[in-house]
Amino acid sequence: MNKIKLVLAGTAKFSADIFISLIKNSDFEIKAIISQPNKALDRSKNVIETDVAKLAQNNNIKLFQPNKINEIYNELKNIEYDFLITAAFGQYIPTNILNLAKKASINVHGSLLEKYRGAAPIQHALLNNEKETGISLIYMIEKMDAGDIIFSKQINIEKDDTAIEIYDKLAKITNENLPNWIRLIYSNQILAKKQNDEVATFAPKIKNEDAKIFLSDTKEKAFSKIKAFNDQPGAFIIFNNKRLKIFRASFDKCKTPLFLDFSNGKLYLIEYQFEGKKRVKHEI
Questions:
Q1: Of 174, 171, 272, 283, which Cα lies nearest the Cα of 222?
Q2: The whole model's pTM is what?
Q3: Cis bond leading into 179, ω under 30°?
Q4: Helix (H, G, I), strand (E, B), or coil: what is residue 254?
């Protein structure tokens, strides 16, 4: 079989963690990688590259970082590729770009669609105390996350799983399945399923204020926020007039001396950081 030619588009660590399974697989030829522009700065004002930009450079793959993907339409038009594969890219991709792939443009989405279309499916699944989530591989169309579902794979959400654990679980099952799924699509051995727009739910982008915790919350609501925002932006509360970020907590009394007393009981803090201080982590 001829090598399947891919263009990859993603920005976050999740994208980089799953693209590696395609880069290292001899069945595929990666023609280019697209990432959002580098925006973050470290304390020395040096630019921090996106995870996907680093991945491209470490593997000597052509890298594009447009402010808007339409800026590179002509460059992509001159690349011959079978599939555009996107994951956590963070930009709207117009139809004229989607139509450039010879076979299809496909998105790896971090939920079991039709549930949680949008930018933050993992966070919203944790906020809503879902017991399961997964990945959906879908055809990309103009409407966000509304394309036909080609494949999906489910995982369980354990009680103490945070966004970081869910990212890792989803990256693992994607790596285990994505190369074979692409081969099957390439050889037309699939039967895609249309989504039902009437039952779709949405997971809009997270704002910093969404991560704020109040002592008037229930301890369960606070716990869900801590798990959902563990990766970023970090759940926080104003505690003794100081901003306190909380990364992990427990309902069970443990060795940590710090706890928060909510409307219906205590939550014990395992990993946290006061503003201007070092991050503290306790053993359970």
A1: 272
A2: 0.93
A3: no
A4: coil
